[in-house]
Amino acid sequence: MSSTSPEEPDNSLVSRLVSRRRMLLLGGAAGAVALGGAGAVASAADRNTTGAGTLDSVKAAASASSACMSLTTEQIEGPYYIDYELFRKNVVEDRTGIPLLLVLRVVDSETCRPLRDSAIEIWHCDASGVYSGYTRIGNGGGGGTPPGPPPSGTPTTPPDGPGGPGGGGGHATPTDDLTWLRGIQMTDHQGFVTFRTVFPGWYTGRSVHVHTKVHTGGSRTSEGYTGGRTCHTGQFYFPEEPVEAVADTAPYSANTVTRVTLDQDAIYPGTGTQGGLLKLVYDKRHIERGVIGSITMAVDPSATNDGGGAPGGGPAPTPSPSA
Questions:
Q1: Which of 140, 292, 298, 302 has the highest Cβ tally under 10 A?
Q2: What is the predicted pLDDT for the residue at 63?
C-alpha cells in the first residue's frame, strides 16, 4: 500500500488480517450478519442524525474557534491496544449497535493550527463490552460472555491487575485476530478525520469510552504509519444522559455488567473537552437513529506520549478500572 493508494475498503468483514471464514467462526451468530447490513448501520448516523447538513455544521463549528485550547489530557493506553494500523473510515465490520459518527480534529496546542497529514487512531469495545483481539477475556476481563463460540487455537492468559485480568493499564496478550472497531486515518488540511462506528458498550470498572492515539511526524506507507511519534494518547467519553438512553436499547440492554457512570470513572479527569468529553448530536426521542460525536484535541506535535504509566483522573469507582 503506497501513500497514495485508496483506503482499505470500508466495512471489510475481515480487513487485511483475517479470512472471512475465520471471522465467521470467531464472531458466532453476530458474524452471520449480511454483508450489506453493517454498511447500512455505519452510514445511518450521517442520514438520520438531525438532517443531512449536521456533519457539515459540526465541522464548521469546530473550525470556527480561533482561540488556543488547553493541552488535551494524556491518559493511559489500556490493555487492549493492538497496532494493526488499518487505514479505513468504517470500522464496524460485523458489529451491531447504534450508529456513531466520530468527527475528530487535532490542532497544535501552541499555534492552534490544524495538524494536517497526521494520523488519528481509535479502538473501543462493542455493545457487549468486548474488544476485538480479546474475545476470550469477555467484558474487559471482569466476566461476561464472549460473542459466539471461542476462537480455535491455544488460549493465552492476559496479565492480572486491578479489576481482573488485563487490568491496570498493562498490555494484555491478544487472544484472537479479529479487528472490528479499530482503525486509523490521516488528517485532512483542516486536521479532521471521520470514523463510522457504533456506540460503545461498557465492561467491568469503566464508563463508556473510546481510546485514541495521535501520530505526528511520520507518513503512511505500505507498512502502515511509518516514522514520527505518538504525540498523544487519550480517551473519549460520553455524557451520562445519552448513555442511559443507549443502555435501554437493544443490543446494549442485554449487557448485564454493572455500568460505571462518568462521575464514578477513575480515569476520566472530569475536565470536559480537555479531558476527552465528546459533544454529541442526536435525536433525543430516537437515539437509535444515530449519534454524531465530535471533539478537537490540542496536542504538542513534538512530544512523545505512548500512554504508559498510571492514569490521572477522577474519583475511584468500585470496582477498580480495567482501562
A1: 140
A2: 74
